[in-house]
Write a structure and sequence with these properties.
This protein is of the alpha+beta class. It is 40% helix and 24% strand.
């Protein structure tokens, strides 16, 4: 009996003293954490870059539109296509809206005209528009342009684990060359 106990103690002592395979076990314990951290950093950087692209696109869109006196619907569609390229749209849902806002006789902001990247009118003409940072930005007889972009970012690597993140951004500009930018379907058919 004592001999068996001595042999057992000897085996335990040898097992504790044995260092072979320790590095492999430590690596097996630490590797999943390191891999998770690596992909987390990569995914975060990609999402941050895509959010920055949305912000850049919305500011570019409203800046280009504000330089016009009359904006043809075909030109607006071209601008929307360009903004989709800035965002590097990979088939994810992307909504781009451009709105001209004026004051009604009471001084409340209303929609002068609107257009989206689907060719529709996202806000009805004359509807109240409450998405402005401050309603006092519009002088009588003038307008302000508002661009809005909504982009559903979906991770390329972890689509299954992480659901889509909706990036939304908006920007405003006053028209530069006229009091109001008019939306025109042709050279002679513009909004009033």
């Amino acid at each position: 009996m004592a001999r068996r106990e001595g042999i057992a103690r000897d085996i335990v002592r040898r097992w504790r003293a044995c260092q072979s395979g320790v590095a492999a076990v430590e690596f097996a314990l630490v590797a999943p954490i390191l891999v998770f951290l690596f992909f987390g950093v990569v995914e975060s950087a990609d999402a941050l870059a895509r959010n920055r692209q949305v912000t850049l696109a919305v500011n570019t869109l409203v800046d280009l539109a504000s330089q016009e006196t009359n904006l043809l619907t075909s030109d607006a569609d071209d601008l929307f296509d360009g903004m989709a390229q800035i965002i590097n749209d990979d088939g994810a849902p992307l909504v781009i809206r451009l709105v001209s806002v004026i004051n009604d006789p009471d001084g409340d902001p209303i929609v002068h005209w609107s257009r989206d990247n689907a060719g529709g009118e996202p806000y009805a003409k004359g509807a109240d528009f409450g998405n402005l940072p401050a309603a006092t930005l519009i002088d009588p007889g003038s307008s302000i342009l508002v661009a809005e972009i909504s982009y559903a970012y979906s991770s390329k690597i972890s689509k299954i684990i992480i659901p889509a993140i909706n990036f939304e951004s908006s920007a405003t500009r006053w028209p530069r060359r006229s009091m109001r930018v008019q939306l025109c379907t042709s050279a002679n058919a513009c909004t009033s």
